[in-house]
Design a protein that fits this description.
The protein is of the alpha/beta class. It has one domain: Alkaline Phosphatase, subunit A, CATH 3.40.720. The chain is built from 10 helices and 9 strands. A 7-stranded mixed sheet has the order 2-9-6-1-5-3-4. Strand 7 and strand 8 form a beta hairpin. Helix 8 runs parallel beside helix 9. The radius of gyration is 18 Å and the shape is globular. The relative contact order is 0.25.
Amino acid sequence: MPNNLIYIVMDSCRFDSWQRARTPNMDRIGAGARRYSYASWTSPSHYTYLMGMIPHASPQGVFASEVYKKDFALWVDRTGIEGLSFKSFVPQLSLPNVLQEEGYRTVARVSLPVLNPQTHLNRHFDDYKLMDDHNDFGGMVKEMGFDEDEPSFYFCNLGETHYPYMLDGDSLPHISGVHGVFKRMDDDMGAQADDRFFDEEQMHDLHAQQVKTVEHVDNLLDELISKAPVNTHFIITADHGECFGEGGYFGHGPINHEKVMEVPFLEGKKR
């Protein structure tokens, strides 16, 4: 039977936040590396990943077509299904579609509203849900189950590492609106926002808080590794990075900066 597959996207987690964090459970899965996202914000990056793409290593002296060819061929080892290639993914260019056709149960759990079930991302999934809580990787893990007669594909978007980084109280600054993404857009369309830009100390503290959220995710990962069957293949990455004051930027999206494109990437099988 094909391998179970778990694809975890830590939203907004930039590479050096993961690098600074203590991640003993991620280390059990595989060695991490710096890779680069294809997009600077959540929606387009997830569309790319669900095409079957993974963060790239920005190789030099090669043709892009050769990079894509090799990336798609890696799904043979990840799934245990011989013969998968780029041709397997066209014309839909959909990882969940390929897996459905191979007999997988396809399940998505997402935290960010821009990935809600009404979007086009919810194609070729048997079960797709926007979590009620922005920070509920633990709830996702509890819902996961595995059938010895049917392989599972779980695609998880985690909000813990996205602003506001699980902030409580008034110890760190908050941006108004939903998760700092939609700043009263319906009510104040065209009006001047009253949020003040963060100072250097606040930026430092926010970066440190993102590191803590990576460690929180890693702690929850222990339960998932324990319940996953042997040979389950894990992919753990981020959809994009984040700026914490570099070049005068905070966050991601309409920002052209290396730190927004840098993401951690690791994968491996449970043995």
